[in-house]
Amino acid sequence: MADRGTPTPPARSVRTFCRICEVHCGLVVDVAADETVLKVRPDRDHPVSKGYCCVKGLGLGALHHDDDRLDTPLKRVDGELVPVSWEQATAEIGARVRALVDAHGPRSVAIYQGNPTFFSLQATLMSAAYVEALGSPNVFASHSIDVNTKFHVATEMYGLSLIQPVPDLDHVEMFVCLGSNPLVSQMSVLTVADAAGVLQRIEARGGRVVVVDPRRTETARRVGEHVPIRPGTDAYLLAAMLHVLTQEQPLDLAPARAVARGVDELVAAAAPWKPERAEAVTGVPAAAIRELATAYAAASSRGGAALYCSTGVNMGPFGSIATWLIQGLNLLAGNLDRRGGLLVPHGAFDTLRLSAALGLGRFDEHRTTDGRWHRVAGAFPVAALAGEITTDHPDRVRALFVTAGNPVHSVPGSDLREALPRLDLLVSVDLYRNETAAHADYVLPATDMLERSDFPASHQSLQLVPHAQWTPAVVAPVAQRRTEWQIFSDLALATGVRPWGTTAAHALPRLNRLLRRLPGSPQVGVDQLLAVLLRWGRRTTLRELRATPEGVLLPPTEPGSFLGKRVATPDGLVDLAPADLVADLARLEAAEADLSRPGVLRLVGRRDRRSHNSWMHNNAHISQPDGNTALLHPDDAAERGIADGDEVEVSSPTGRVTLPVSLTTDVARGVVVVPHGWGHGASGARRARALPGVNVNDVVPGGAAHIDPVSGQAVMLAHEVEVRVSVPTSFATP
Ligand SMILES: Nc1nc2c(c(=O)[nH]1)N[C@H]1C(S)=C(S)[C@@H](COP(=O)(O)OP(=O)(O)OC[C@H]3O[C@@H](n4cnc5c(=O)[nH]c(N)nc54)[C@H](O)[C@@H]3O)O[C@H]1N2
Ligand SMILES: Nc1nc2c(c(=O)[nH]1)N[C@H]1C(S)=C(S)[C@@H](COP(=O)(O)OP(=O)(O)OC[C@H]3O[C@@H](n4cnc5c(=O)[nH]c(N)nc54)[C@H](O)[C@@H]3O)O[C@H]1N2
Ligand code: SF4
Ligand SMILES: [Mo]
Question: Rounded to 5 degrees, what angle do the CA atoms 297, 276, 242 make?
């Protein structure tokens, strides 16, 4: 960074947008003549974020100039990672992959795409494409430890994984938010700026916000009513709401029958779940369930209402069923595809139409070697990856690329870490030497978001307020950092395959032909491809976006533009009763007694405004939290002889962590809260490594035994744990 004593005048200010979370806040970056990033500011002229942003976005300059960033390719020699040239790294990796494919077939090569992949057009287009070009279906992705439930359920109900109806928060009368903490996270699978402000405006105009969460969260403290719930039990609550609205105060189902099939099966699914029965498992009083359901129906019949869930539900044991019930309730109550309910946006170029045309995001017939798991939204469950590496099957995975991900850290359990030594080749493409890179044979330095041009293609159909923005690379890449577009295209050449050539070509023949005609560098290629897509979309052009760097508003999403028109199922009807979800209801019955057991502690997570999964803890701009702390209800603590501030051991049958505890009545009884993303002892990022903190995924049970059987989503919440004093404060303090 620039010397603080002698302020360098900015040579230019460049408009761009943040790509850390779904909001995509508009930013202005002041850059000095020598390409130093001087300052990152919120962009008040951005048509949607209007000056909103958070400390993580403002820390992008510190991320860009961080001394611990990867600046050259590294290769492991005698156990140590040492710098090598791009030419050497690319040639060697290409040759090793070629040899593996020749000896063992294409399935010996796999890729894991981490979360930031989907915030980069270049990485989205050109990382899995490399592995698919080899003829391997072995794509694994972070959405299977995040939102596979939503993607799978959407594929079944609407025909495409990316059809994720967006709550019309600017017009709803009632918003029921399950398992999300908008004030901290800004929500997920939804692009809305200043989520907490948007929710407060619902209340300000006389509407109602209900937050269903085992913890009285930052959001619940600020806005709406808080309904505490036992971890992992939302599906029972939702089934009981549906019971009320179909058995006790029946909704008129005729409108639903006109646009959907399976209405009766959905109604039947909820029949056994009287509110009194759900109360015993959820801890939500039957009267409160009835009131919630009837208020939701009443708001639906007036200005509109929306039920929404996020990771607190997705990651639970019944994330798919809960998601299905939410979508079903929203449709039966008449909220889908209406103003004040939920809308299905088009995007600047219609990603839904495009993926339908290309056959992407549909039910995917590829299977893991044991035949158990199919791909959801183009990827296998990462919780099954360890098994694919260690199996004796001739097609087992022998080479793994990890891009923009940290699966050693982010995936529950230790089985992946234990499987990695069985690999012949592990390559990490990242900004940092993260915990996964600690196991890698090669580590390749990627550009950060200030160093690449971009367009938020993956999030277009998730915008509450439709808009479009393109950013140039704000600064030239530092040192030898490269975009994933270039890294994986070069790897493809070095392996002797054409990216977009073989498997991907089944899906992308037209784009492939266009791409091959494109002149210039790969960087130019991606923007030209974008220009073509935007022209096809007819809502804006790259020329317009270049001329309007703060972004442009697109026409608002029209109510009535989805049902009967853009539903992507073969018959154009929404499927309200997918067979695998109906069959999975038996698990609800089977788990009822276990989830109702008193005196049990169950583990859930939490996020912090200053952190982002595992990768913000080295940022010098952010005043870092002091590691992670467990939260526990004082009565649960008292029963175990635990005092505020004690070091406690949180243990499951598969692992344990030790960290300080903080006692708070914000947490419901029977709940332990531990944030993920911490514990960087194996990281090459020095500031992060020096911080205290533990990786909660050491205690969350992992592997194939803990995967939602329908969607492939890892079950990461509501596991039973024990908590006991490790070091009492009275002994710890001298
Ligand atoms: N500052 C910050 N922002 C982020 C991230 C970050 O790490 N830091 N991560 C980003 C990512 S990748 C994502 S996917 C999104 C996620 O965004 P959210 O899904 O909003 O994530 P959380 O903030 O963890 O909120 C989940 C909530 O679910 C609650 N919960 C736990 N178990 C249950 C349950 O069984 N039922 C119910 N109803 N609630 C439960 C938790 O107490 C928690 O308050 O956030 C994104 N934004
Ligand atoms: N116990 C528990 N575990 C969780 C969660 C939880 O709530 N509880 N949350 C889950 C969720 S929602 C998610 S999304 C996953 C995330 O899981 P992952 O995506 O596997 O992990 P991240 O910690 O997000 O790591 C992202 C990595 O990408 C790097 N990176 C950032 N930008 C770029 C880029 O442009 N290019 C490249 N090549 N690298 C880049 C960062 O340095 C970092 O190392 O974690 C999941 N794990
Ligand atoms: S991380 Fe912060 S600045 Fe970046 S998009 Fe999300 S809210 Fe905006
Ligand atoms: Mo996520």
Answer: 30
* Atom 13 of ligand 1, nearest CA residue: 188
**How many domains is the chain partitioned into structurally?**
4
> Which domain-ending residue is among 346, 381, 412?
346
> In degrees to the nearest 10, what's the CA dihedral of 112, 118, 120, 125?
70
User: In this structure, what token pair is assigned to residue 419?
Assistant: 């499987």
- AA identity, residue 642: I
Per the domain annotation, does 589 fall within a domain? no
Residue 647, beta-bridge partner list:
660, 727
Cα separation of the two ends of the chain: 41
The alpha carbon of residue 108 and the mean position of all alpha carbons in its chain are separated, in whole angstroms, by 27
- Give the C-alpha separation, 502 to 145, whole Å: 28
Domain range for 658: 598-731
Alpha helices, DSSP H only, in 624-714?
634-639, 686-690
Which pLDDT does position 8 carry in this prediction?
A: 80
Residues in Cβ contact with 632 at an 8 Å cutoff, skipping those fewer than 6 apart: 601, 642, 648, 661, 662, 663, 664, 667, 671, 672, 673, 723
User: Chain-centre distance of CA 655, in angstroms?
Assistant: 25
Work out the pLDDT band at 729, boundaries 50, 70, 90.
Answer: low
Q: Is 676 in the pocket of ligand 2 (CB under 6 A)?
A: yes
Same-domain status, 391 and 526: yes
- CB-based burial, 48-61: b 16+ in 10 Å, e otherwise: bbeebbbebbbbbb
What sign for the dihedral angle of Cα 317, 321, 326, 329? Answer: negative
The stretch 373-400 carries a mean pLDDT of: 97
Ligand 1 pocket, 312 CB below 6 A? yes
- Which position has the token pair 């509501």? 718
- Which of 71, 119, 142 has most ligand 2 atoms within 8 Å of its beta carbon, as the pocket-test mutant? 142
CA-to-CA distance for 539 and 556, rounded, in angstroms?
A: 11
Is the beta carbon of 621 within 6 A of some atom in ligand 3? no
Query: Percentage of residues in the chain with pLDDT exceeding 70?
Result: 95
User: Does any ligand 1 atom lie closer than 6 A to the CB of residue 607?
Assistant: yes
What is the C-alpha separation between 487 and 438, in angstroms, rounded?
Answer: 20
Here the CATH number for the domain that contains residue 640 is: 2.40.40.20
Bridge-based pairing of strands 12-17 and 26-31 is: antiparallel
138: left (phi over 0), alpha (psi -120 to 50) or beta: beta
Verify whether ligand 3 is closer than 6 Å to residue 57 (CB atom): yes
Looking at the domain assignment, is residue 158 inside a domain? no
Q: Give the pLDDT confidence of 260-279 residue by residue, as tens digits.
A: 999 999 999 999 999 999 99
Cα 329 to Cα 222, 241, 308, 564, 722: the distances in Å are: 27, 8, 11, 18, 36
In sequence order, what E strands does 78-141 have? 80-83, 109-113, 139-141
Q: In this structure, are 177 and 272 located in the same domain?
A: yes
Within its chain, how far is the Cα of 56 from the centroid? 17
Q: What is the 3-state secondary structure (H, E, C) of 559-582?
A: CCCCCCCCCCCCCCCEECCCHHHH
Instruction: Report the separation in Å between the CA atom of 186 and the middle of ligand 3, taken as the mean of its atom positions.
Output: 8
CA 682 to chain CA mean position, Å: 24
Under the banding of pLDDT at 50, 70 and 90, the label for residue 193 is: very high
Would residue 665 count as lying in a domain?
Answer: yes
Q: Which of 346, 362, 390 is the last residue of a domain?
A: 346
CATH number at residue 17: 3.30.200.210
Task: Give how far the C-alpha of residue 453 lies from the chain's centroid of Cα atoms, to the nearest Å.
Answer: 22
Provide mean pLDDT across the span 477-497.
90
Q: Are residues 51 and 79 located together in one domain of the fold?
A: no
Rg (CA), the chain: 25
